[in-house]
Amino acid sequence: MVLLGKLSTELGIKASADKFFNYFVTQLHEMQNHCERVHHTKLHEGEDWHDTDTVKHWTYVIDGEVHTCYESFEEVDKQNKKSTWKLFGGDINKHYKNFKLILQVIDKPDGTAVAKWTVEYEKINEDIDPPNGWMNYLSKCTKDVDAHLSKSRAARKV
Known about the structure:
Elements: E1 4-13, H1 17-26, H2 31-34, E2 38-45, E3 55-62, E4 65-77, E5 82-88, E6 96-107, E7 113-123, H3 132-157
Antiparallel strand pairs: 1-7, 2-3, 3-4, 4-5, 5-6, 6-7
């Protein structure tokens, strides 16, 4: 009976590691403007989107279905470009006791960068499937954010 799990994916990005990481720790409130699968975000508790004590409410689409949850920063490690979010409430609690998203953005020796996403979860029972739809969701959001950041960079060069 396995209730704990972890899924990971690494995605190449065009934006610099610093710029991509910075977006997720200082511009998270912009996600709904740049990610097709994020429908709505709002502050639920707190005054600053990027404070570790703030709770945000998300409405998003996974596997063609609209879902909601709450999210808060658990850890931000700027030196290692790593951030951890705890997701809870809404649709998350229907399937999982614990659910975390971890982003680490890594500079590669060839000058490119990689966004590594990890989903750590604890299912409420063994009949619950792993959150594979989250990997597709994170992949699409990564591509959307990267396209936005790359477009912004290209526009400044003109």
